[in-house]
């Protein structure tokens, strides 16, 4: 295994920049990666929900993973999402991520079928036994239809030491609290990340480790600022930034899936990218683009970069 990485802080899920009818735009991806590293994020997560993995053929997922790892070149830790509804495909993508040099993988549970707990356990067991990399679980029951309970996660962690953390994209603060208390009582360095941006400060205050927030792909200064202020004990500043960050989630209501919203917001920050998306996502109309621009203009101070 590679030297273990302590995953913590702000690790944005990176929108995949595409052009020419669904081809990877390496120039645009590179510009976004550089912007986020310069913004002092603590890592980068490629091929999550915001990265459109669910619309991609396996070949494109591999291409994105290989480029991202190569371009980041060790500047920050890189996580690659490898989850699929198929154990076989998940293993193939996970082996590829390891061979390409990823620091870890993020594995969402299979969607479409609701699995028995034993079948779900065996799915993760097959991956943990085969892949010599740190693994973060990805709990998003709103999309997968099946929750990863704290007790289930503890069972996995006790059996497989390379399962080192979880992204908790759940509405219930109580669920994240129980995840922290239940799993960290056994494995103190198990990393618990909030998936929803407005749960970040609460997750930190309960003993969690960070956030994997899509808004950090276009307003990283808020999440990064919250984390840095919290670490320094400047809770007044952390709360102030959290109150500025929380309303950004209203942007997600503009469309579904909202990957197009994130890309338009990134472009408005002055990052030279294509805002193409993979079907069934569609480009935003001009009215919705104007709403994003108006929102960001009100949110950001005059020192921030925003395309006029």
Automatic annotation (TrEMBL):
<feature type="active site" description="Schiff-base intermediate with substrate">
    <location>
        <position position="167"/>
    </location>
</feature>
<keyword id="KW-0456">Lyase</keyword>
<dbReference type="Pfam" id="PF00701">
    <property type="entry name" value="DHDPS"/>
</dbReference>
<feature type="active site" description="Proton donor/acceptor">
    <location>
        <position position="138"/>
    </location>
</feature>
<comment type="similarity">
    <text>Belongs to the DapA family.</text>
</comment>
<dbReference type="InterPro" id="IPR020625">
    <property type="entry name" value="Schiff_base-form_aldolases_AS"/>
</dbReference>
<feature type="binding site">
    <location>
        <position position="212"/>
    </location>
    <ligand>
        <name>pyruvate</name>
    </ligand>
</feature>
<dbReference type="GO" id="GO:0005829">
    <property type="term" value="C:cytosol"/>
</dbReference>
<keyword id="KW-0704">Schiff base</keyword>
<protein>
    <submittedName>
        <fullName>4-hydroxy-tetrahydrodipicolinate synthase</fullName>
    </submittedName>
</protein>
<dbReference type="GO" id="GO:0016829">
    <property type="term" value="F:lyase activity"/>
</dbReference>
<dbReference type="InterPro" id="IPR013785">
    <property type="entry name" value="Aldolase_TIM"/>
</dbReference>
<dbReference type="InterPro" id="IPR002220">
    <property type="entry name" value="DapA-like"/>
</dbReference>
């Amino acid at each position: 295994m590679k030297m273990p990485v302590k995953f913590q802080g702000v690790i944005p899920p990176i929108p995949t920049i595409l052009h020419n009818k669904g081809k990877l735009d390496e120039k645009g991806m590179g510009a976004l990666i550089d912007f986020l590293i310069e913004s002092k994020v603590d890592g980068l997560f490629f091929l999550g929900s915001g990265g459109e993995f669910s619309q991609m053929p396996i070949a494109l997922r591999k291409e994105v993973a290989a480029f991202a790892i190569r371009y980041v070149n060790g500047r920050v830790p890189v996580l690659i999402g490898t989850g699929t509804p198929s154990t076989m495909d998940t293993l193939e993508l996970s082996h590829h991520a390891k061979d390409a040099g990823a620091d870890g993988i993020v594995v969402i549970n299979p969607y479409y079928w609701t699995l028995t707990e034993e079948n779900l356990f065996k799915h993760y067991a097959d991956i943990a036994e085969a892949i010599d990399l740190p693994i973060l679980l990805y709990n998003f029951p709103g999309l997968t239809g099946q929750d990863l309970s704290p007790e289930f996660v503890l069972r996995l962690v006790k059996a497989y030491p390379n399962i080192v953390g979880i992204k908790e994209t759940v509405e219930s603060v109580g669920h994240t609290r129980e995840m922290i208390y239940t799993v960290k009582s056994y494995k103190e360095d198990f990393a618990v990340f909030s998936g929803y941006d407005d749960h970040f400060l609460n997750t930190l205050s309960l003993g969690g480790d960070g956030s994997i927030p899509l808004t950090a792909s276009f307003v990283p200064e808020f999440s990064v600022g919250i984390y840095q202020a919290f670490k320094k004990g400047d809770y007044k500043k952390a709360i102030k930034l959290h109150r500025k960050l929380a309303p950004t989630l209203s942007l997600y209501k503009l469309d579904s899936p909202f990957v197009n919203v994130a890309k338009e917001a990134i472009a408005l920050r002055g990052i030279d990218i294509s805002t193409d998306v993979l079907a069934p996502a569609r480009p935003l109309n001009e009215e919705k683009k104007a709403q994003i621009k108006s929102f960001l203009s009100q949110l950001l101070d005059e020192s921030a970069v925003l395309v006029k």
